[in-house]
Amino acid sequence: MLWDDIDAQMMMTRDEVIQRAHHVGYGDIVYEAMDRFHSFIQNKSGAVFGATNPWIEVFALRHGATSVLTVEQQEIEEKTSQNLSYIHPRDLANQWANYSETFDFIASFSSIQHAGLGRFGDPLDPWGDLREITKMRCLLKEGGIVILGLPIGVDELYWNARRVYGTVRLPWILRGFKILGVVYTEENENGDKETIFTSGIPLSFE
């Protein structure tokens, strides 16, 4: 994938940037979450998990992030003057010591629910989503936050498209985090709500 319009997006209005979000209609809630927790992003370094276009990265940069690393299965070529970089999940694992506990924030939207289902070339793993959130937690500095978007409803697996999180699996995803805020959309045709959880690692996290 070629990302060559990042600099142009940095010059757009808020509404124009939100309209370019990969998930139409969901850009508002991600931008709102970043507005609310601006202090965790401004002058801080972060990572984005799962991205087919750089809308979340642009949102973070526009909120003052000093650098953003994209973690994505598909190869990405970036042409930008912004401090944006890319790494494949395999390389992240191989270079783990360089990244552990280094990020102030991590953002991920409509990504974790696909992890381990093989839809985007990742290996099959029934615990793939739980491994991903554990990985994010380990990459955060103490006091860092995760801005996490995923569908909330009745627990369900739509093979091999996605998971929906309810009373069974959602507590596993949020285990070890302190919930700082929640933003959500209206219910979709399946009765699910696309929900943003802003969660932080407490300073006393064990």
Automatic annotation (TrEMBL):
It holds the Pfam family DUF268. InterPro entries: DUF268_CAE_spp. It comes from the Eukaryota. This is DUF268 domain-containing protein.
